[in-house]
């Protein structure tokens, strides 16, 4: 239910934010949405992290695509707020990851929350196809992710019977054991370091690039192979994150 809600809503939020940025109008839906649902730690975290991420990575990001990047950051935040306020979907211990790709001419911009992936198929010097991962799996054992979770009193550790899978736990309870550091929903952990802020990536397409695969180990409910020769604009992939 969470993944379907994200599938149905996030594209419209992103398009709306993008149009607002393009027109220069600052009275957008995500800012208006801040008046609903009260103030929570995840709201503060999102505000601080969006500013920090922009300052940290904008030097590497083409200036022409900065409005799209900011639109993606705000759309993901608005999506999480809509889930929090939804009257019938219980998102307290249920959530979704998402990876979204926008293609603009020869440029692709990818937003990722959780551990879904965007993988580029490109040809090497011998003309063989090879896979290049465009995103980073946002797992709790990544130093930056773990540091944020620990800062807000969440815990990160793996169970004895699966030592390779780090999970996020509440401060005083061995639950829920979420195997990712960012997700939509899962509000039981949003006061303890879990966030819905996406990592946003830029890549310039070359003649050697053939297609992008948006991949997940969960439930695929959108097309997941994107030909770089087709001028479609927006693609999304979601998975359950519980």
The best one-word shape is globular
Q: For the residues shown, what is the average pLDDT?
A: 82
Please, how many helices? 5
Counting structural domains, the number is: 1
Beta-strand fraction estimate: 25-35%
- By DSSP, the count of extended strands is 12
Bin the helical content: 25-40%
Main pleated sheet: 5 strands, antiparallel
> What are the segments in which pLDDT stays under 50 over at least 5 consecutive residues?
25-39, 230-238
Instruction: Give the CA-CA distance, first to last residue.
Output: 11 Å
Class from secondary-structure proportions = alpha+beta
Kindly provide the radius of gyration, computed on alpha-carbon positions and rounded to a whole number of angstroms. Answer: 18 Å
Looking at the structure, the CATH topology is Phosphatase 2c, domain 1
What is the helix/strand order?
HHHHEEEEHEEEEEEEE
CATH architecture: 4-Layer Sandwich
Q: Can you identify the CATH class?
A: Alpha Beta
